[in-house]
Design a protein that fits this description.
The protein has 191 residues and is of the alpha/beta class. It is built from eight helices and six strands; from the N terminus they run βαβαβαβαβαβααα. The protein has helices spanning 24-31, 52-60, 74-83, 98-105, 116-122, 132-144, 146-163, 166-189, and strands at 11-15, 39-43, 65-69, 87-89, 110-113, 126-129. Strand 5, helix 5 (116-122) and strand 6 form a beta-alpha-beta unit.
């Protein structure tokens, strides 16, 4: 990550499409509220000359916020997550977000928007926020307490292992198909 101006263990990440429902402005404002001593690595294309929301995000960013642009190489993105000390996730809509799942797999402690989707996915690996003051408090706690980060990181890896491995997900689909086939066979036997 040094090629991107980031030192291992010296940044948190935020990976998402730069749209308002992903709470980027809130997270950047909260992160930039005070000097952090770490960087915020922002993955995504921010075009302040073309988009008012992007301009607001860039304008709210302190000099500790680094705009990396889009990263499509899965190895580079995985390395970025692996070497970070946390992940900020502001998605307010949707379901099981792949970026959040990948952050858990990397053992990233999470600061996430407080909604049922994010709480189900991150579980005990997250600190949650609904507004800028709560996001600021969560980021403060995450960055100030190495013991908390270690506990959340362990919870992230455990949650990923419990719910999001390919074996577990494929096994659930396999069981669903077996159940449907068994019901279909029972229905066929009764006709």
């Amino acid at each position: 990550m040094r090629s991107r101006g980031l030192d291992a263990g010296g940044y948190v990440t935020l990976v998402c499409r730069p749209i308002p429902e992903n709470s980027i402005l809130e997270l950047v404002t909260a992160f930039s509220a005070r000097p952090r001593g770490v960087r915020l690595a922002m993955v995504g294309d921010y075009l302040p000359d073309q988009d008012d929301y992007h301009r607001a995000v860039v304008d709210a960013a302190s000099d500790e916020v680094v705009f990396l642009g889009s990263i499509y190489d899965p190895v580079e993105l995985a390395a970025l997550r692996f070497h970070g000390i946390g992940y900020l996730h502001g998605h307010t809509v949707g379901g099981t977000n792949p970026s959040l799942v990948e952050a858990l797999a990397a053992g990233n402690p999470v600061v996430a928007h407080d909604n049922p989707y994010n709480r189900w996915v991150a579980g005990q690996a997250g600190l949650y926020f609904r507004d800028i003051p709560e996001a600021t408090t969560a980021i403060d706690a995450l960055l100030a307490d190495a013991t908390l980060r270690a506990r959340l990181a362990a919870a992230a890896r455990a949650r990923h292992e419990e719910e999001f491995t390919w074996e577990h997900v494929a096994g659930q689909y396999e069981q669903l198909l077996l159940d449907v086939m068994a019901r279909a066979a029972q229905m066929g036997a009764h006709t």
